[in-house]
Amino acid sequence: MEIWINPACSKCRSAISLLDAEGADYTVRRYLEDVPTEDEIRDVLDRLGLEPWDITRTQEAAAKELGLKEWAREASSRERWITALAEHPKLIQRPIITAQDGTAVVARTDEAVQDALSRKG
Question: Can 9 be counted among the known catalytic residues?
């Protein structure tokens, strides 16, 4: 199990606290420092069952600079979104937990963290 976090994010800190309280075995990836590659982003999207625009923080300054709200949200635009996430990792929604069963969750609530913990391989 891996969790992608920004240590400055309260939801990330809350998720870590809950994982610790449950005695979970996990690794922390500070994704702003250890930036995911485009392939890693594609893999996480597949595991989440989501599209890149579904995990994009559109209120971030970089999103506004890029004009992301105007970008098409369709299959032909998918790679453009993935490239933007790789080049501007702050745009990636957090925290993301990759579960032991091969899936992943955007763990912004305690319930989502518990869901990730319940997904055994």
Answer: yes
